[in-house]
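Entry 12.
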Amino acid sequence: MSMSVKTLLINKTKTYYFTRFGTVRAVDGLSMELGEKEAVGLIGESGCGKTTLALSIIRLLPPQCKILEGSILFKGRNLLELTEKEINRVRGREISMIFQNPSSYLNPVMKISEQIIECITNHHAMKKSEAEEKALEMLTKLRIPEAKQVMRCYPFELSGGMQQRVVIAIALIRNPVLLIADEPTTSVDATIERQILNLLNELKENLSLLLVTHNLGVVAELCEKIYCMYAGKIVEYGDIFKIFENPMHPYTSGLLKSALSIDELKKKIMVVKGDVPSLINPPPGCRFHTRCEHVRPICSKQEPPTVKVGKNHWASCWLHY
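Predicted 3D structure (tokens):
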């Protein structure tokens, strides 16, 4: 792959839900990029549109949700222009996704072995015995204890953490170029979370990783770059160390101040005041202005431009214009 071609390049994409209550602007003119073997975090509060963006990339949206504008280039190819047959060849083979709720992703009436084997044989002409061997090899690689026994289990017989590792095995079985991980540690306890993070740290050496989460600690451990999303838009992005040390958007700053820290046990936890605005009728101008401590008259009238605020650091805020 040419060095000039990004693994993923999203440009001014709009994904809306059309409901009986109104049009939900879940992803509203959003742009981002992900390089080869780069780990990028997408952070923001629940309901800001993170999962909708992830599902837009692989075109697994519900019927009432449509991608209206923009482009999503994967290795230079616009995924939005592919036929259903073509996107099916990309989905799962070149782009895989780890969903945040493994119990709803796994088929409850199929054994684990059957589910992994099905994923292999759907894309490759392979004997069942060979596929079973490859499935066992992947589970072993993911350090799943008693992998042979796990293969014979149904999903409900496994713990949440074990289910999540099975989902990761299914996502990786075809050696994808891009892995999208949507809240991969939400349903597991601290011990399993640590194991999954260690695993993702190893995996990112061989693929591009888009980590979708609200957990700042997880992002800090796995990613080199982050995008901060608020109410369907990116408000700040760039090098993770620069943003964590010196956030330049009031929303990003509020998120960081609200995070618990083992180094500051007596630190007073701050909260971002107010509520996330309705994406059916979002505020005019900057969507964060109704909760911002630094609001100016222009903030409620005009959307701020995205400006460079440092090396490898951009923010969309009138404070810097």
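Annotation: Residues 128-141 form the longest helix (14 residues). The mean pLDDT is 89.
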